[in-house]
Write a structure and sequence with these properties.
With 165 residues, the chain is an alpha+beta fold. A hairpin with a 2-residue loop joins strand 5 and strand 6. It has two helices and eleven strands, in the order αββββββαβββββ. The protein is globular and about 35 Å long. Helices cover 17% and strands 49% of the residues. It has an eleven-stranded antiparallel beta sheet, covered by helices on one side.
């Protein structure tokens, strides 16, 4: 869970070129027939602080430097990209997008380009148990803004954030 929070906060940092964006979050659980849809905002105060807040601030993803915090209801999970390789990759990707730099290469990272859109997939490597099996970030390269962030979990479910200005 800590790794998920870190990843989400890094993703939101990629959207830091805009001070505020509207966010729609879809939570899909394989065992449930209906997806849960909530809305909120993406706020960037500086390139190293990004906050995605949905469900009237009950769910939040915050990246503050290397610290990632995920709050879901009353549960809070914290991780640091210096200790978590998956979030370190995510942080590097977000910083590259925010700064308009090339996406860094990595063993657990693939980048696919199609027109003006880049799809960046981060898949953890190693034996360490992860909450998510992959993160998929779609970025509009013309405007340097995020379009979607999807976090796939081990059970076949996912959380997907769609960003709009």
């Amino acid at each position: 869970m800590k790794k998920i929070v870190l990843f989400l906060f890094c993703l939101f940092a990629c959207f830091a070129s805009v001070n505020a964006q509207t966010v729609t979050k879809v939570t899909h659980k394989k065992a449930l027939k209906t997806d849960v849809v909530t809305t909120g905002t993406l706020t960037i105060r500086k390139p190293s602080y990004v906050c995605i807040s949905t469900d009237e601030n009950r769910d939040q993803l915050i990246m503050d430097g290397t610290k990632f915090t995920m709050t879901m209801g009353k549960k809070k999970h914290v991780t640091d990209s210096r200790r978590n390789p998956m979030f370190a990759t995510f942080q590097a990707v977000l910083e590259a997008v925010i700064n308009g730099s090339p996406i860094p290469a990595g063993d657990n990272l693939t980048v696919t380009k199609n027109g003006g859109v880049e799809t960046i997939t981060i898949t953890p490597t190693g034996k360490k148990r992860q909450m998510f099996t992959s993160f998929v970030l779609v970025v509009d390269t013309k405007t340097s803004t995020f379009k979607t962030l999807r976090m796939n979990d081990r059970s076949g479910g996912y959380m997907e954030y769609t960003f709009k200005k």
